[in-house]
Amino acid sequence: MTISIFLLSLKGGIGKSKFAYKLSKLLSRNFLSVLLIDNDSLHTLSTMLGHYGNGLLDGCEISSSLKKIDDFYLLKLRDNPISVLYDERYDRLKSVLSKKWDFIVIDNYIGINESNAFVKNVYEASERKIGIFLTDYLTLDNTFNYMRIWSNLDHKFVILINENNSYNYSSNQLLYAIL
């Protein structure tokens, strides 16, 4: 069974990329097959993990956009912030998503919604869908409104990040509680 985990936020710099990496590392440590997708238009996660090549949506082949990092795979979707999903790139994405992944973890750009073609493709490849909404005190009310428009998720969680953007929780305990 493939479980997709969407990391979502209305604000940049909240910690989605860091959380996505830690979650993927934790899941893969338990001998699970994990695909981490960098769907951030700024490709922060790919840069952080040393994936400097072009992304799948830039016309890059799967072999160049999919890299093994630690014990999981990282799929870089874009290098160009305005790259879109169309034509043969749908087939390439579906080819990657159709592999037997236990988990697909997605670091998304801010404000993405369920009508997005990429999200729809991940939904089709997943038996269970989880949304983790990261927020701070300033955007908490808006985050709850944003969470409500994600109607096709099986489970939704909100994580409140404190002002200095540090994680004061035990990462493993929090992630296991979510899963």
UniProtKB/TrEMBL annotation:
Pfam families hit by this protein: CbiA
Coiled coil: none
Source organism, top-level taxon: Archaea
Start and end residues of each CobQ/CobB/MinD/ParA nucleotide binding domain: 5-108
Name of this protein: CobQ/CobB/MinD/ParA nucleotide binding domain-containing protein
Native source organism of the sequence: Saccharolobus caldissimus
